[in-house]
Amino acid sequence: MATAKRELIDKLQKEILQWEGYKPPSIGIRGGLGLGTLEAAFPNGVFPQHCVHELVCANSEQAAASGGLVTGILSMLMQKGGVCVWIGRAKRLFAPALTAFGVAPHQVIFISLHKDKDTLWVMEEALKCSGLTAVVCELRDMDFKQSRRFQLAVENSKVTGFVLRNAKDKLSSTACAARWQVRSLPSTDLNGLPGLGFLRWQVDLLKVRNGHTGSWALAWQDGHFVPGEEPVVNEERQVG
Amino acid sequence: MAIWFRHLLTDGLARRRPELKALPFVLVAPVKNKIIITASSPAAEQEGAFTGMAVADARAAVPELLAIDDMPGQAAKLLRLIGLGCIRYTPIVSLNLPDGVMLDISGCAHLWGGEREYLKEIVLKLRAAGFDARAAIADTPGTAWAVARFAQKRPIIASGTQAAALADLPPAALRLEPEILDRLQKLGFRNIRPLLAIAPQSLRRRFGTGLLLRMNQALGHVEEHLEALATPVSYTERLPSLEPIRTAPGIEIAIEKLLEILCLRLQAEGLGVRKAILKCHRIDGRKVQVGITTAKGSHSISHLLRLFKLQIDKIEPALGIELFLMEVPRTEEMVVEQEQLWAEAKGLGDTSLAELLDRISGRVGAAAIQRFLPAEHHWPERSIKLAGSLTEQPQTSWPELPRPIRLLNEPESIEVMALVPDHPPKLFVHKGKRHMIAKADGPERIGREWWQDNGQHRDYYVVEDTDGCRYWVFRSGHYDGGDAQWYLHGYFA
Fold first, then answer.
1. Would the pTM count as exceeding 0.90?
2. ipTM of the assembly?
């Protein structure tokens, strides 16, 4: 009786997910991005591609770390070629750094804007464009209405959107698929060798639609993500 | 078609100073110690003050005569303005100094319902603006010039009847030099008719080639070219409106109609628009224009219309727009695209991407959109350059050395403690915050390019503090007795 009920509930949940636009990965196509256990937090256990993700950044260091993680994800999305639009405030991102994450910088179109109003307009137009693979934009703030507009734009065009926004004391709710926070972690030890090791981040999923939140450690090593062995629980660590 | 302004200078002045309109006034300039009248107003002419008289003599006839100093170059300025205004009637307008304008009206008159209506429209418009204009239409510029100035009536000369029209006009109608005119006068040529009967050889012997050339030009035996005031653009469409248009939807419809014609033409020739300009002639005589540019040649009506829609609010219709003119000064050959059935064309050549960028540049300006290519410089600020076009590919490979994902526009000064000279710092203070450094890589020395600028080289270190944040810091110059300056230049992911 209990198993029958669970099966029924599972089936219903799957149907609801489908209605909401989350399709189960088709057989034969590897949907994963190599994010390891982190991906299990998302519905169906796959990183939702045709959605808008928001990353909150409390300071410049976190913004850089978020930029790194997004670029890493972009390199996975752009494997089959593709173009990305990066909307930010004047000249923040340094293009040559993208090569380290496996993204050809000349495949990225930068749009530098000063006003949030323009940024929102450009972001929405870009998300509607099906010729793009992904759109990243840096915003000061975003309200629910705007995030809903982004989500609606994305549903038709199948573009992946990332919004890097400033962290505030109280973040309003948005229609984004997930809210991330990325911090740098000390790089991995290279068997006692001096110098810096591979980049490592602590990735917190603060909110996931139809999924569960959590905290993970991720490293970037030779062009792909390497999930940390054990979930990092390091609550007393101060930001920045 | 030739237009002659009998009182160009005085009309122009009266237009600027309406109080002069009814007064007898003259423009004067000193010639050989005498003050000579260079232009006189209609009222002054009626009283007997003509161009070429000395002011003193004219004053004797007209005591209340007003003399105003002539400004040299004013005629050319006025004619240029009038000529630019005439572009709404024909694309080829040329100035005919000192007092006329020539229009090449081939294929234009039928738009106004025939040559008679066309001429009436132009002359009435000029007279309404305050210019005493006379115009004439003929096959050749020479005949039109003569008829506008010397014929009393019938300003429209039918095709092929130049000789008949010229016959009764005085020889001065042939645009001749004063010496030849003098000689003709002495010989008793009161009109052109007897000249036409004389054999060309004897005319050449007596008067030189000048007279023959002018005659042949007027009769149409020798081609005469008009020098266009503004070079006409080869892809131009015009749309006159019956009623003045003042609303945004009206303008939109006009743009769509123009685009339909233009795009069809361009499509047939395999070209695409790179730059288009919409010029709106308003009924108050002013002109407003907006332009669009595209990143990639396009002849898609819907796309171009969308670009223009972003500009419509910049058009100020005022009392109404009576003529829309769309010019395409820059075109590009289009690669004929095959419809893609299954492959998803996601790349820099994608049409939807080009259209997106056009919309963005229409709204926020093209300068905001940047694409970078590697430049062969080690100096970080110079290591990237802007790509010229959307599909330009890098000539060299991107550098492999570690570079920060966020580079500060200006390096920020930091205070540093290093244990040993030429070692990475142990701690640094940036904006009042201490960063203890746990790991460091470096240095990477980047020298200045001496042929571009001189100054200190930089020794870059990648450092990681105890929190795990990674920074790009550098020391400017050598470590000399501990007073070297340190800077923070970027953040690593």
1. no
2. 0.82
